[in-house]
Design goal:
Blueprint lengths: L4 H5 L5 E2 L6 E2 L5 E3 L18 E2 L21 E2 L6 E2 L2 H4 L1 E9 L5 H19 L2 E5 L6 H11 L8 E2 H4 L12 E6 L2 E6 L2 E7 L9 H4 L1 E7 L25 E6 L5 H6 L3 H8 L9 H15 L11 E5 L2 H4 L12 E3 L13 E3 L1 H18 L1 H10 L3 E5 L8 E2 L5 E3 L11 H10 L12
Parallel strand pairs: 7-13, 7-14, 14-15, 15-18
Antiparallel strand pairs: 1-2, 3-4, 3-5, 5-6, 8-12, 9-20, 10-11, 12-13, 16-17, 19-20
Length: 436
Amino acid sequence: MVAGTSAAESLLERVTCPHCWQKFLPEDVLWVAEHRDLLGDPMLTPADPQRFLPTRFNVEGNAIDAKNFSCTRLACPKCHLAIPRAVLELEPTFISITGAPASGKSVYLTSMVSELKRLLGTTFALSFSDADTVSNQILSGYVEQLFGNAEADDLKPLGSLIRKTVAATTGEMYNNVRFGTQTVAYPKPFLFSVLPNRFHLNAEKAARLGRVLCLYDNAGEHFQPGEDSSGSPVTRHLAEAAALLFVLDPTMDGRFRELCQARQELRQTSGRDSYSIPQEPILHEVADRVRRHARLRQSERHKRPLIVILTKYDLWYDLLEVDENTEPWRELPAKSENGGGPKRYALDIPRIEAKSDKTRELLLRISPEIVNAAEGFAEEVLYVPISSLGWATTVNAEGQLSIRPADVYPYWVTVPILYAFTRCLPGLVPALKRRK
């Protein structure tokens, strides 16, 4: 039972845990004990409160624990990890962010989330907020460091603002659960609620269109062969994902660097004129795991969108020969019945796809193996150039890539996930028609 009669009436028929991806009935959800003596859940740690299936409730509909304390938090009946109430009412949408080590996944995720919170309400009439502040704590800290830094005018190494995702499954990005003698490490998801507000074109369908967005940021090392097992299912979310985002750093490719007019800055950060870190094997490993977990044949292409995100566009934009660099959405005509409400916009799909075509042509000339790997795996592939930090990165005296937080100006970082919304969740983000 969930607190409140009205809440119970809006529950999903089946709930999906964002940690272990188990599906269960809402009446099977566990509650988290509140009394300080009820510690030591057998599947978690001695410091974790016990989980229980309640038999007593107070007048507000909240469970009563064994020490007669009212409880408010919920947990998954399989893994016992805490889940937000939003997952009981809103369907989940899983988005997996993958890529090679040091390709910029965490920086991109930080910048994207900050921009979504800033733009979605005013541009697409969508409420975007934390569904679980505890689960999002690490990412919220990164956002604060990059966009709310008290020393915003000081030049800071990027590594001091956002730490590299730790590959060890005992780190802060993973939850360890004991199943008898077996300990399983699950990646911590970042959870956000996305709901149409009253100015949305489909405001009356908010309950149906609303989603819990579940984002996963894995260390690139976890896509090395053999790194995914029953004890460490760190990338099993790939099979659940409505869209896959593959972060590609073109400047890791020596062929790309040779053509880039900003290669002098790149040499300063690497200490050598040219180097190459292969990223194609990671993409192949992602494809193999999706096929394995989604039970796809080797000859079968994935039917969900694969979006290849090319980072550090500020260093190589001159190679693309695209002049227009404004945000890709257009204002919609005002509806007379909205009472002079805020402007509303639609995602310019033809423009995004045109830029994708140009980016694909560039990759075919310089790194054709990436295109072959992507299009051999997925039926629909989009190539999106982005800059997580903008145009003001520089190199400090120690040769570290640095920026002043006040100068961070992200470019197109919301485009990949907004495009994914238009493909996976029709009606949530208004969009101009795709090309035939």
